[in-house]
Amino acid sequence: MALRFWHFGPGYVMITIRGVLLEQLLTAAHRNQIRLWGVRRKGAAASLWVRAEEVRAFGALCRRYHCRFRIEKKCGLPFWLKKLRRRPVFLLGVALFLVLLNMAGLFCWRVEVEGVEGRLALAVEDYCRSEGLYPGAFLPTLDGRAFAEGLLTAFPELEFAAIHTSGATCTVEVASKLPLPPRVDRDSPADVVARYDGVVTEVAVSAGTALVAPGDVVQAGETLISGKVIQRDGLEEVGAVWTHAAGNVTAHARLVWEKTETCAFSASVPTGEKRYGWALNWFGHQAAGGAAEREGWQKTGSRTFSLPALPAEVTVTRYEQQQTLTGTRTLSQVRGRLWVAAQTYLQAIAMTEGEVLAYELDFSPAPGGLTARLTATVALSIGEERAITQTEEWTENE
Amino acid sequence: MKQNWKRTLAEGLALPKEACEGLPFFTFLGREEVTVENVTALLSCTPDCIRLMTNQGPVRLEGERLWISAWDQGQLSAQGWFCRVCWEEEKR
């Protein structure tokens, strides 16, 4: 079998020989460098395989040894091509297939995004699709450098972008920037001021001069720790140094939250009726059909399918009919909704600011509804840094 | 004398004798295939017996359904079901 593959190119034939001096003929053929294989004896005859180019020499030997030979089978590329000459349409089909295969390689069959994951990867894929890089796009017109630059401009969080084309697969390789830590200013002069009104309960100063003490009532914006440190020689003031004040001032602050809600409401709800639209990208051409976006219908999802082994993709979009409902809530329902909103606010305060010590929730009538007013007493750190503007005194000290 | 000189040289240099002296070299693959190197002629070929000529004398391969799978450059491969391989007495 291996010899047949080896001799497929030059071609080979199966010969049946008959005669008395068969063995002598075979020995003579071997001495004349004629390659023989598959020799089988069948009574007075024998069958064997010979290369096509050596048939003529083998025939001469047969005549010399008084043997008759007959060609039984012809195999190999030359005979196969000879058969094909009688089938021009088949040859034309093969040529057409090769041309189409070559043309198909000019189109993008697959787009891959490497280097990022999650939402950013989806966003990059959407950008590529919107900029003309999708299954079916014509690759020779694609300017990879300009595309990568556009990608970096569209996504500032990307540090590197490049496009590689391997066969019919486009690989968009991107790398996201490493987030830099926020710069903390610890050098320029600053005060610590109050964010809310409240009663100071604890003061801890690490830099600067404390201006308040536990028990003091402070207002929002009032300086708690000053960045000005007075230098003394005994009891006499000899100067001042401006520093970046730091410390923790804890106080019981009163936070106020208000919200008004009317009894009348309107809401958009799906009716349950759905329609689907489709779009086909095929060799750079687009075709769409089915439902489209219009008033009263909202796009609720879309999915893109890449057709296997084809430079094309199909996008199916789902639309749902929306209905606007209007109605009126009772005062009790409005009160309940405001209570839920107030509780949500309290939970947010407890998570972000500090411990809620007490709260009071009042409802008052409002035009067409109710107004909720929440007053909460929260133990929290009320200090925040505020830069000191350059003053004449500071300049002199500098 | 010539054969003795070749044999001495082959033994001294540890060269393969089948290459230096043209001795037949048999390779058996189970009972299904026999490869013989340095075959000089094919004496007979039937499904039951293949007779080969080597420079050491005729060799007889006996078995069933025997056929020559390849014969090229002095190397003959035969396939089938081999029962016996023996040397024939050379008529001098």
Give your account of this protein's structure:
The complex is a heterodimer of chains A (398) and B (92). Chain A folds into four domains: 2-81, Alpha-Beta Plaits, CATH 3.30.70.340; 107-176, Roll (Ubiquitin-like (UB roll)); 183-263 and 329-398, no CATH class; 267-323, no CATH class. Helices cover 26% and strands 47% of the residues of chain A. Chain A is built from nine helices and 22 strands. Chain A has helices spanning 2-6, 22-31, 55-64, 77-84, 88-104, 118-130, 144-154, 331-352, 392-397; strands spanning 12-18, 36-42, 45-51, 68-75, 110-114, 158-166, 169-176, 190-194, 198-207, 209-210, 217-218, 223-226, 228-233, 236-242, 246-262, 264-282, 285-290, 297-306, 312-328, 355-366, 369-381, 383-387. In chain A, a hairpin with a 2-residue loop joins strand 2 (36-42) and strand 3 (45-51). The radius of gyration of chain A is 45 Å and the shape is elongated. Chain A starts with a helix and ends with a helix. The mean pLDDT of chain A is 87. By secondary structure, chain B is α+β, with helices and mostly antiparallel strands. Chain B has one domain (22-87): Immunoglobulin-like (Sandwich). Helix content of chain B is 17%, strand content 54%. Chain B has helices at residues 2-13, 17-20, and strands at 25-29, 33-37, 41-45, 49-54, 57-72, 75-87. In chain B, strands 1-2-6-5-4-3 form a six-stranded antiparallel β-sheet, with no helix packed on it. In chain B, a hairpin with a 2-residue loop joins strand 4 and strand 5. The longest helix of chain B has 12 residues, at 2-13. Chain B starts with a helix and ends in a 5-residue tail after the last strand. The model of chain B has no long low-confidence stretch (mean pLDDT 87). The interface between A and B is medium-sized, with 15 and 13 residues. Strand 2 (36-42) of chain A pairs antiparallel with strand 5 (57-72) of chain B, so a sheet runs across the interface.
